[in-house]
Write a structure and sequence with these properties.
The chain is mainly alpha-helical and 156 residues long. The chain has 2 helices and no strands. Helix content is 90%, strand content 0%.
Length: 156
């Protein structure tokens, strides 16, 4: 607050020298105006600081709310991703099991066909051997018969 001695001379003397009593009243009036202005300025500053603190607190609350919302959304996204990953894993396992079952079934079919082919080849081999033995006997019989005829023709 400004004291009357800090005021310009005209304000201290009442604005132009109209007398000491009037000048003192004017100086006192100016001093009370200044005091009121300073009090108002102090109140405006205090109000501005309070509004600034309130706005900062409101900003902090909003930031905390947004942070919580973002964390909740992130948790939901992670939960959905985990559920999707688990479903994909189960599907992949089921597909792999189906493939293994199919491969085992195919391997068994190939084995069965192979065993049948071996049995057929053995049977064919036995049949060929039997036919070869019969053919050999026939050839030997024909040979013996031809040799006997040749011998008989040469003895005559």
């Amino acid at each position: 607050m400004r004291e009357p001695q800090d005021l310009p001379t005209t304000a201290r003397n009442g604005g132009g020298g109209n007398g000491n009593g009037h000048g003192a009243a004017t100086a006192h009036g100016v001093a009370s105006i200044l005091a009121a202005a300073e009090a108002t300025a102090e109140q405006v500053r205090a109000d501005a600081e309070k509004r600034a603190r309130d706005r900062i607190a409101e900003g902090e609350r909003a930031a905390a709310y947004r942070t919580r919302a973002a964390e909740e959304e992130a948790a939901e996204i992670i939960a959905r991703a985990r559920a999707d990953a688990e479903r994909i894993r189960r599907d992949a396992e089921a597909d792999a099991q189906d493939l293994v079952r199919g491969a085992r079934r195919t391997a068994q079919e190939v084995r069965d066909e192979g065993l049948q082919l071996v049995a057929n080849l053995r049977q064919t081999g036995e049949s060929l051997r039997s036919n070869a033995e019969r053919l050999l006997r026939d050839v030997q019989g024909v040979h013996s018969h031809m040799v006997a005829r040749l011998d008989s023709a040469t003895r005559r």
